[in-house]
Amino acid sequence: MADPKVFEEEIKVSGQQVVETVRKLVHEANVRRIIIKNEKGDQVLEIPVTVATVGALLLPVLAALGAMAALVTKCTIVVVKEQE
């Protein structure tokens, strides 16, 4: 078996779109980690998707994202994916 290649993808979204975008990304099979950065490029939140996909653990993460979305106008979502 070959080792998977890891790459990053950046998505710029407004604060209102953060929660919905993260919900969609969590359901993608090849996503390993999601990092939320503010307008200045500072990391605000990091979500290891393997943990977040466990239903009960995803709810507090989405609540935190909702609270953060109210505070920021624009942010960047960095999606760490693997490709075989």
Description:
The structure is a single chain. This protein is of the alpha+beta class and 84 residues long. The chain has one domain. 36% of the residues lie in helices and 39% in strands. It has helices at 18-26, 49-52, 55-71, and strands spanning 5-14, 31-37, 43-48, 74-83. A 4-stranded antiparallel sheet has the order 1-4-2-3. Helix 1 (18-26) runs antiparallel to helix 3. It is globular. The model has no long low-confidence stretch (mean pLDDT 79).
Mean pLDDT figure: 79
- Counted beta strands: 4
The coarse silhouette is globular
Residue stretches low in confidence (pLDDT < 50, at least 5 long) are none
- Cα-to-Cα separation, first versus last residue: 9 Å
Write the layout of secondary structure elements.
Elements: E1 5-14, H1 18-26, E2 31-37, E3 43-48, H2 49-52, H3 55-71, E4 74-83
Antiparallel strand pairs: 1-4, 2-3, 2-4
Helix pairs in contact: 1-3
